[in-house]
Design a protein that fits this description.
Elements lengths: L10 E4 L8 E6 L2 E5 L3 E7 L10 E11 L7 E7 L2 E9 L2 E5 L4 E4 L4 E5 L4 E6 L7 E10 L10 E5 L4 E4 L2 E10 L2 E2 L8 E8 L4 E5 L5 E8 L2 E3 L2 E3 L4 E5 L4 E6 L3 E8 L5 E5 L2 E3 L2 H13 L32
Antiparallel strand pairs: 1-25, 2-22, 3-4, 4-5, 5-12, 6-11, 7-10, 7-12, 8-9, 8-11, 10-13, 14-15, 15-16, 15-17, 17-24, 18-23, 19-22, 19-24, 20-21, 20-23, 25-26
GO molecular function, one term: metal ion binding
Family: Belongs to the pirin family.
Keywords: Iron, Metal-binding
Length: about 325
């Protein structure tokens, strides 16, 4: 799960100064970004209008892509620091390898959760024999200062808890929703849930008023708090809600993302999250020298080189533009 942008920009994220304390309906427009050899993603976070939702700091939506005669996802070994990656599929498979020795095929509605901690590297690829369609989301969760140097590790959970109501099945990916708790490790108050809605369903999703939330549309057509949401778009909702009304115009898939607003200010560049520009520069140098981030074995190809750092000093921009 990588940011492959060859002109990655330094950005300051986090802090409570720009958290919207009241309910809002802010539609975020995606930016199209190539990922590997044959996959294009729609990037929703970081966005020109908003950089974080709780601890969620990076959201890509991709597919459905017909990869029957294509290699599919091919992301060479690359580093991460200071974050967790969340792999979530609706269709297809992704083979995960990392520098702590993990080798795992992730399938639809299974949680692939990698905690980078101080340093890890990994690759992602569609298996040689793969399903025709690839459709999913790739997300990052920022680690708070107290836990950002933990030992790197990977978790795979094929069975996750559900919350059900007429016409709704909610799979709890991370955190807690309506009393159901994901087995995935978390380090801040957070929630991530996959909402599968049958056509004609009209229901309310219980929320925590102190959390800020956003909803990503994966498939179908649904109205979220009265706003029509089509696949590949995301609606930022702010805080102050105890329930979220949703209505499905067709069979629809949504992802609910939320959490306690992230108080610390972060610097995010390429695939690193740190607290200073110097820390980011050191991480880049370590990756290019082949130290600290370990080695990924078994990927048929070279690892990624880091892009050049911007030639100008970091300009803090906060949670929003």
């Amino acid at each position: 799960m990588s940011n492959l942008d060859r002109q990655a920009a330094l950005a300051v994220c986090g802090g409570r100064g720009f958290v919207v304390a009241d309910p809002v309906r802010e539609l975020l427009t995606p930016r199209r970004v190539p990922l590997g050899e044959s996959t294009e993603v729609r990037r929703l976070l970081p966005n020109l209008g908003r950089r974080m939702v709780g601890a969620w700091c990076f959201v890509d939506h991709y597919g459905p892509d017909d990869i029957a005669d294509e290699p599919g996802m091919q992301v060479p070994p690359h580093p991460h620091m200071g974050l967790q990656t969340v792999s979530w599929l609706h269709e297809g498979e992704v083979l995960h390898r990392d520098s702590v020795g993990s080798l795992q095929t992730i399938r639809p509605r299974e949680l692939g959760l990698m905690t980078s901690g101080r340093a890890i590297s990994h690759s992602e690829e569609s298996p040689k024999s793969h399903a025709r369609f690839l459709h999913g989301a790739q997300l990052w969760v920022a680690l708070p200062d107290a836990h950002r140097h933990v030992e790197p590790h990977f978790q795979h959970h094929a069975e996750l808890p559900h919350v059900t109501a007429p016409g709704l099945t909610a799979t709890v990916i991370l955190g807690e929703l309506d009393g159901a708790v994901s087995p995935g490790s978390t380090y801040t108050p957070i929630v991530g849930a996959d909402l599968a809605l049958a056509r004609g369903t009209e229901t309310g999703i219980p929320l925590v008023p102190d959390f800020e939330y956003a909803v990503l549309s994966m498939s179908g057509e649904a109205h979220v708090d009265g706003v029509p949401l089509l696949p590949g778009s995301m609606l930022y909702l702010g805080c102050g809600r105890s329930e979220l009304p949703v209505r499905a115009e067709s069979d629809a898939g949504l992802m609910l993302l939320g959490g306690e607003p992230f108080e610390e200010e972060l610097i995010m560049w390429w695939n690193f999250i740190g607290r200073s520009q110097e820390e980011i520069e050191t991480a880049r140098d370590d990756w290019m020298k082949g130290s600290r981030f370990g080695e990924v074995h078994g990927y048929a190809g070279d690892r990624l080189s880091a892009p050049d750092l911007p030639p100008v000093p970091l300009k803090p921009r906060g949670r929003v533009r």
